[in-house]
Amino acid sequence: MTNELILNNGITMPALGLGVFQSAPEETTAAVEAALAAGYRHIDTAAAYGNEREVGEGIRASGLGRAEVFIETKVWVSDYGYNETLHAWDKAVGKLDVEYLDLFILHQPAPDRFEKTISAYKALERLLFEGRVRAIGVSNFMPHHLKELLASTEIVPAVNQIELHPYFTQPEVQAADTEHGILTQAWSPIGGITFYPGWGEERRNVMEDPVVAAIAREHGKTPAQVMIRWHLQQGRSAIPKSTNPGRIAGNFDVFDFQLAAGELAAIDALDRGVRNGPDPDVARPERFAMVIPEA
Ligand code: NAP
C-alpha cells in the first residue's frame, strides 16, 4: 500500500500526515523537521493552533522543496465571511512563508452564523480558481452541514476532517462523505482526545484498549501503529500528532504490515458512538471569537 490518496479534483495527497494541535510553537519546528526526516510529506496545522510560522520554519529547515511537502491549514471561525476568509489566506501564507497552500479547510461549521460559513467557503472556491490553494475542504461537518453547503456552493469539498478513532468512528459521516466523493480525514486518529491530560478523567483511553493491544502484539507493532494502519487500509487520511521524535518516526512506520479483514472489523466494532470533542452543532461564542493575528 502506498501513502498516496487522490482527491476529488485529481490532486495527490499523502494519506499520513503530522498533526500539530497543542504542539507548542517552540517544539513545532523540531517536530516538523523530525517528521520530514522520517518520511512524512504532509503537515496539518491551523490558524487556531498558533504555530503556522513554526511549521513553515520546520519545512524550510528540512531542505525539502516547497512542492515536496503537502501543507494543510484551517480558517478559524472569527475569519468566516467572504472577505475575511480571503484575508485569512494572506495571514496563513504570510506565517507559513509560502506562495500557496495545498489544502485550505474551514475548521468547523459555525452553527450561530452558518451563512458566514457558506461565504467563507465561497472565498475558498475563489482561492482555488485563482490557484492560490490546490484543494479546499471542511472539518467537523456533519451530513446536514454538507447538504446545506452543497446546495449553495459549486465545488464539492475534497476533504472532511472529523474526530475519528476506534471509540468514535462516525459511520454516518463517513458514508455521507463517500456518497459525495469527499475524502474522510481522521483527527485524533490514535485517540488523543480520549487521553489528553486534563480533558476529563472519565474518558476511556483508546490507547489502552485490549482489542487494539492484542492486534498490536500479534503484529509486533504498537497500538498507535495499528490504529494508523486501520485508517489507511480503510482509505482514510490520518494526521497523528506527536512532538516526540521516536513516536513521530514510529507513527510513520506502518507500511510493512497488513491488518486482516477480521482485525479491521474487530477495531470497527469498538465504536461507542460517543463524541469526545466539541459538538459541531453547538456554538462556542468565546472560542469562536479568538482573534487570529496578522502575519
Ligand atoms: P492524536 O494524534 O490522536 O494523539 C496525539 C496524542 O498522542 C498526543 O498526546 C501525543 O503525545 C500522543 N502520541 C503520539 N504518538 C503516540 C504513540 N505512538 N504512542 C503513545 N502516544 C502517542 O490526537 P490529536 O492531536 O487530537 O489529533 C491529531 C491532529 O488532528 C491534531 O494534531 C490536529 O492537527 C488535528 N485535529 C483537528 C481537529 C479539528 O477540529 N479539525 C481537532 C483535533 C485535532 P506526544 O506529542 O507526547 O507524543
Defining key terms:
single chain, 295 residues, alpha/beta, TIM Barrel, two-stranded antiparallel sheet, 11 helices, globular, binds NADP nicotinamide-adenine-dinucleotide phosphate
Question: What this model shows, in words?
Answer:
The protein has 295 residues and is α/β, with parallel strands linked by helices. The protein has a single domain (4-288), classed as TIM Barrel. The protein has eleven helices and ten strands. An eight-stranded parallel β-sheet has the order 3-4-5-6-7-8-9-10. The chain has a two-stranded antiparallel ribbon with strand order 1-2. Helix 5 (143-152) links the parallel strand 7 (133-139) and strand 8. The longest helix has 16 residues, at 114-129. The mean pLDDT is 97. Residues 19-21, 44, 107-108, 139-140, 161, 187-193, 196, 207, 222, 224, 239-244, 247, 250-251 line the site of NADP nicotinamide-adenine-dinucleotide phosphate. The site of NADP nicotinamide-adenine-dinucleotide phosphate has 29 residues, from helix 9.
What's this entry about, in short?
The protein has 295 residues and is an alpha/beta fold.
Series of H and E elements:
EEEHEHEHEHEHEHEHHEHHH
The gross shape turns out to be globular
| CATH level-4 homologous superfamily | NADP-dependent oxidoreductase domain
Query: What is the typical, i.e. mean, pLDDT?
Result: 97
By CATH, the topology is TIM Barrel
> Roughly how many Å is the radius of gyration?
18 Å
The largest sheet, given as strand count, sense and whether it forms a barrel, is: 8 strands, parallel
Spatial order of strands in the largest sheet: 3-4-5-6-7-8-9-10
- Note the beta-strand portion: 5-15%
Tally the helices: what do you get?
A: 11
- Hetero groups: NADP nicotinamide-adenine-dinucleotide phosphate
As for the number of domains, it is 1
